[in-house]
Design goal:
alpha/beta, Rossmann fold, five-stranded parallel sheet, two-stranded parallel ribbon, 41% helix, phosphoprotein, Rossmann-like_a/b/a_fold, CCT, Ethanolamine-phosphate cytidylyltransferase
């Protein structure tokens, strides 16, 4: 997947140098070393390119990073999170570059992992967002994580994401609309931020020579009202970071009103309001949420050209449910085995033979 945890890693990596090249693996490589990918390679290449700290994407990057790869793209060093990535046979994929001193590490984002998000999606069919049943299902899922001998894995186990003002400041552009810029407002859930969202925002961004795109994110309860089941998969805090990381977005309204009101349009001095081809669910009072911008003649419907929706991603997961559950358990077992080996190595008295 591509999620805000990855964006945060790329943000930190970019701050370590001047030009950030991101290597993205093929579906084949991921299936071999980790398990079935959630997003297809073409989707992932485009998603990564849309993250604002990325200067260049290298498609089909080798799973094991070698010095040869770094030299080929004229890179001084490579950066990875402070978790481990292992090859199919349990080796550290960064061994060679670490030994050569061309490896840097950044902090992993607490409270999110592909493994956790996959687990949340697998619960979609089980219960309702607001019910106690849903919470206990999730707790059961969270607690069952790390049933492997040796206890819970610190990287792919489930933990709660905690939003801070610092994190929002790090992700935000900090820029206000400038004279001559076209202020464009879009609103939605932007749940499990994916290629459909990226394609839509890219099209919106192209509507003006100097666009300033504001994305209004609805509250979790509002999203649940019009989406049902246990949507949203990601809470409002997580969705905020996902959208802020996108290069086509200048500002985010955290908890936007469902109906685009005259007050909102006046407050942000909005020139255009856009919506994709997805169904527009009426507000609680039965009104069209885009009534005001339509009345003013500033409403535009945009065809992103992508048919991917959050629902379709969840369907992909459920379809491969067993494969994903096996992937999560296998990945955790492999990481725990590596941790145990590291612990034993550290406990070994110096000078003793391997």
């Amino acid at each position: 997947m591509v999620h805000y945890g990855h964006s945060n890693q790329l943000r930190q990596a970019r701050a370590m140098g001047d030009y950030l090249i991101v290597g993205v693996h093929t579906d084949e490589e991921i299936a071999k070393h980790k398990g079935p990918p959630v997003f297809a390679q073409e989707e992932r290449y485009k998603m990564v390119q849309a993250i604002k700290w990325v200067d260049e994407v290298i498609p089909a990057a080798p799973y094991v990073t070698t010095l040869e790869t770094l030299d080929k793209y004229n890179c001084d060093f490579c950066v990875h999170g402070n978790d481990i990535t292992l090859t199919v046979d349990g080796r550290d994929t960064y061994e060679e570059v670490k030994e050569a001193g061309r490896y840097r590490e950044c902090k992993r984002t607490q409270g999110v992992s592909t493994t956790d998000l996959v687990g949340r999606m697998l619960l979609v069919t089980k219960a309702h967002h607001s019910s106690q049943e849903m919470f206990s299902e999730y707790r059961k899922y969270a607690d069952s994580f790390g049933k492997c001998p040796g206890g819970r894995n610190p990287w792919t186990g489930v933990s709660q994401f905690l939003q801070t003002s610092q994190k929002i400041i790090q992700f935000a552009s900090g820029k206000e609309p400038q004279p001559g810029e076209t202020v464009i407002y879009v609103a939605g859930a932007f749940d499990l931020f994916h290629i459909g969202h990226v394609d839509f925002l890219e099209k919106v961004h192209k509507l003006a020579d100097r666009p300033y795109v504001i994305a209004g994110l609805h509250f979790d309860q509002e999203v649940n009202r019009y989406k049902g089941k246990n949507y949203p998969i990601m809470n409002l805090h997580e969705r905020t970071l996902s959208v802020l990381a996108c290069r086509y977005v200048s500002e985010v309204v955290i908890g936007a009103p469902y109906s685009v009101t005259a007050e909102l349009l006046g407050h942000f001095k909005v020139d255009l309001v856009c919506h994709g081809k997805t169904e527009i669910v009426p507000d609680r009072d039965g009104a069209d949420p885009y009534q005001e911008p339509k009345r003013r003649g500033i409403f535009h419907q945009i065809d992103s050209g992508s048919n991917l929706t959050t629902d379709l991603i969840v369907q992909r997961i459920i379809k491969n449910r067993l494969e994903y559950e096996a992937r999560n358990q296998k990945k955790e077992a492999k990481e725990l085995a590596f941790l145990e080996a590291m612990r034993q190595q550290e406990a070994q008295p110096e000078g003793e033979d391997e």
